[in-house]
Specification:
The chain is α+β, with helices and mostly antiparallel strands. It has two domains: 114 residues, HIT family, subunit A (2-Layer Sandwich), CATH 3.30.428.10; 133 residues, 2-Layer Sandwich (HIT family, subunit A). The strands form two sheets. The protein has a ten-stranded antiparallel beta sheet with strand order 3-4-5-7-6-11-12-10-9-8, covered by helices on one side. The chain has a two-stranded antiparallel ribbon with strand order 1-2. α1 packs across α4. The longest helix is centred in the middle third of the chain and has 19 residues. 31% of the residues are buried. The model has no long low-confidence stretch (mean pLDDT 93).
């Protein structure tokens, strides 16, 4: 169910039932561990037998189209510690489920909340996909900016390079809103998710670096299915501080980290 803000008429998702979701940090049993499969809705997909990765609908969905991808059967696993092939398969499933949900949603966000400070209520390794009946504000505004630009801001801009692979650049974006923010950007100009290629290995390296400064981090995929002139990317950042009154009241962020973000990653080469 959606509502609208009173002044700008922006969409708001109304999901009061999510208050009932379990908080494992506060003592609830983990519904994502082996043996607790009946505590989740029936699986959509799995990898391995016994399973290594499970995909199922979110029991407490913020929208009609919401899924959970549990990336390991090990409760305290971390993404950077997964075997390379398992991380690769997890990212492939992100792309597969993204394409499936995109058939019936205006926009699909893939994201991870890792750690309590990042907004997670379950510490067991997992990511989520949420499809919305509208294009949210950030991708909508960025799509408009790409459409207006004479040249692609991600193809042409000179951002500090952390590392690169055959198909991706791992960069520290200039004007980062949050401390140690990074973007993983396809080298080819692509507005929507196609093939993950070696994306999993970069994400594992980024997570390994972020966990040296914080136990909590977020990532999200920012795609533009309706704007061919746009350029999709993955945003990742460790959670160093809470989003507080100034940020919420103004929409402007205060980044307290030095701009030489790449220094954090100097010892984490691909």
């Amino acid at each position: 169910m959606t509502g609208r803000t009173p002044i700008t008429n922006d969409p708001v998702i109304l999901a009061p039932h999510r208050e009932g979701r379990p908080n494992v940090y506060e003592g609830a049993p983990c519904p994502f561990c082996p043996g607790a499969e009946e505590q989740t809705p029936p699986e959509i997909a799995r990898d391995g037998d016994p399973w290594r990765i499970r995909v199922f609908p979110n029991r407490y969905p913020p929208t009609e189209h919401a899924e959970v991808i549990v990336e390991s059967r090990v409760h305290d696993a971390a993404f950077d510690e997964l075997p390379a092939d398992q991380a690769q398969r997890a990212v492939e499933l992100y792309f597969e489920r993204y394409r499936s949900l995109a058939a019936s949603a205006a926009y699909v966000c893939i994201f991870k909340n890792h750690g309590r400070m990042a907004g997670a209520s379950i510490p067991h390794l997992h990511s989520q996909l949420v499809g919305t009946p509208f294009v949210p504000l950030r991708p909508s505004r960025e799509a408009e900016a790409f459409a207006r630009a004479a040249n692609c801001p991600l193809c042409d801009a000179d951002h500090p390079l952390i590392a690169e692979t055959a198909h991706y650049r791992w960069i520290a974006p200039r004007g980062a809103a949050l401390a140690y923010q990074q973007w993983i950007v396809p080298k080819s100009h692509e507005h929507d998710l196609r093939e993950p290629r070696e994306l999993a290995s970069i994400m594992q390296t980024s997570v390994r670096a972020m966990r040296t400064v914080s136990d909590s981090f977020n990532w999200s995929f920012v795609a533009f299915p309706h704007e061919p002139r746009a350029h999709w990317y993955v945003e990742l950042f460790p959670r160093m501080a809470m989003i507080a009154g100034f940020e919420l009241g103004t929409g402007t962020f205060v980044n307290t980290a030095p701009m030489e973000t790449t220094g954090l990653f100097a010892n984490f080469m691909l």
